Every structure is written in structure tokens, then in C-alpha cells.
Amino acid sequence: MLKKLTLVASLALLSACSTVPITGRRQLSLVSDSEINTLAATQYREVIAKGPLSTSSQQVAMVRTVGQRIQAAVETYFRQQNASDQLAGYQWEFNVIQDDKQQNAWCMPGGKVAVYTGILPITQDENGLAVVMSHEIAHAVAKHGSERMSQGLVQQLGGQALSAALSTNAPATQQLALQAFGVGSQLGLLRYGRNQESEADHLGLIFMAMAGYNPDGAITFWQRMDARENQASPPEFLSTHPSNGTRIADIQRELPEARKYYKGR
User: Fold this and answer.
1) Predicted confidence band at 227 (pLDDT cuts at 50, 70, 90)?
2) Which residue, of 93, 110, 220, 233, is most buried by count of CB atoms within 10 Å of its CB?
3) What's the half-sphere exposure (Cβ side, CA atoms, 13 Å) at 150?
């Protein structure tokens, strides 16, 4: 009986797989786009309400300018791939959160983006900011948040459907969502895996190039990030993230493809 139940559960999970837009990688998907976008919008409003938001008009204008250019590039790319339906329900927003200690940015499903002021000294300019924002937006359009939410539902809540998980354990499910979307990643839970990071780097290079930003800037950004990171960080084989050295090498291999999309501005 136990073997039969295990087989049934395995078949159910297999049937819940989908493919990553563009790359075609198979991923677990227990949450519909409409469910994940609605949940993301709710969580985003709560995070933004807590703020505090940056009062620098220069910072806000730069983030929104870069974000809107990448948004246009993403929409163009998906249209060219006859996959505009993958962006159904997106309602883009770009905000800057005042926190100089947080060297972070994220994009929730549905195009809800936040950039922390702490990362701006590392990005330095619009091109550096485009590296970060295109990478985070790539996570969203590749449905990595939904994938991680699905993994969390299996690991922490026994594979419950999202609606059931919210009704029976709303606080835990909402916290799971924030972790899945990359918010509060300092908690160390549900970090993006190497496949997801590599996909976001790859797609991000294309999106920033299409938006008119030089994709070669990704190399210098990650070199700056590497110089600032704690030298006591764990070795690559103990981390879900590729090391900066590996990431830079991967990006260098992908740059020739990205440069084909770069026309400059």
C-alpha cells in the first residue's frame, strides 16, 4: 500500500511539471500563474507599505527608467517568440527601498520589482543597474518564484495546493512566498539554485542588451560584487549559487549571443 501511495504521489508531481519559458527546462509547477501573480501582488504591497521608500528623486527615476526599458525588451522578446501569453497578468512596478545595508534587488511574479539603495554603489550607473534588474526580472519571467514556491509546498507543507495552504496556514504560506520570491533571502531558505541562477544570467544578458545596455558590463559588475563579498564565503560546492568566478566564466561564454541583441542607444 505504501509503495502504491508513493507511486501515486510521484505521478502527481510528474504531472505538475511545466517548462521554463524560452530555455525549455522542466520545472515543478503546483501553482497557477494567476494564483502566484495575485499572491505576489499582495505580498509586494505589504513590503512596499513597510518601506521605507527612497526619497531620492534621482534614484527613483534611474530605477524606473532602467526598469521600463527592460520591461519593453522583455515584452518584445516574448512577442518575437510567440509567447506573449507567458506575461499575461503582468502589472509592472518599480520601487526603491531605502536600506543602505541591503545589497539586494528582486522581482516578484507579475513584474513587481524592488531595488535596495545598498546595491546602488555597486551598480554605479544605469548599465550596472541594468545587469541587476534584468537578472532579477529574468527570474520572474522564467517562473523561478513559482518553481520555488512549488518546491516549498512539497517540502514544508506536504504538497498542499496553494489555496489550501493559505486557508490552513496563511502566515507560514505567506512567509514561504516571500522566501520563494527572493525577499528576505538573508533567512537562508529556498535560495535560487544554480540552474535558476544560470538561466537568469543568460536571459538577463539578452534582456539588457535588447534594452540598449552593454551586456559586457555584467563582467565588471560581478567583479565589483566579488571584491565586496565576504572572503569567508563558503566554497562553491557547499552553495546553491555558482561562485562569482564560475558565473563570470559562464557570462563570458554567453556574451557573443547577447551582443547580437545590442544595438546601443
Assistant:
1) confident
2) 110
3) 21
